[in-house]
Amino acid sequence: MSDHLILLHGLWMRGIALVMLRRRFESEGFEVDVFDYLSVAAPLERTLERLRKQLRETEGTVHVVGHSLGGLVALRACRGQDDLPPGRIVCMGSPLNGSASAQRLAEAGGAWMLGHSKELLEHGLQRWDGKREVGVIAGSKPVGLGAALGSLEGDHDGSVAVSETRLPGIRDHCVVTASHSGLIFSAEAAAQAVRFLRQGRFRHQSETVDAESVS
């Protein structure tokens, strides 16, 4: 029986943006559902309850992969919920300890663009202490809104700094050459996600990711 996987998109996106990523996971044998939500207009607690409901109604192992805000939503939904089915979480380009770009945008009068996700994006989480193993994939291609706002320091993907994707309590972390939006189209990022979902760790250093296997 195949493992189930729920995909979550990021801010200002809808589920249709994850078509290629979904196909990559399906080609690896996962049964994939895309969780579509209103990242700005919908109250966060309503989104969290919808995701928890979907997790509870899915039998067997259920993994979650979230891009950007989607990774934060996944962690918030699964934290402290002992009745959810087993599975791992992969966050792709998620500002787990807070987004400087979101803070800068809000300070510049763009708080309305963040809507109900503002607080979560600005402050993130302090640490991960949930039951699920969490792996985080960061991007290092500096093309995006954050670069234009001048809010990022160190390596970044154009919207989120690599340092913002690190969080105490996560199981593993890796960096791929992709922009923030490019993470959902990256064969390397998908291959790393598949590796973590199956083995609980990414490939590192001299190990080679077989990107062609999920292309």
TrEMBL record:
InterPro entries reported in the protein's UniProt record: AB_hydrolase_1, AB_hydrolase_fold
Domain of life: Bacteria
AB hydrolase-1 domain: residues covered: 5-131
PANTHER family: SLL1969 PROTEIN
Protein name as annotated: Pimeloyl-ACP methyl ester carboxylesterase
Species classification: Bacteria, Pseudomonadati, Pseudomonadota, Gammaproteobacteria, Lysobacterales
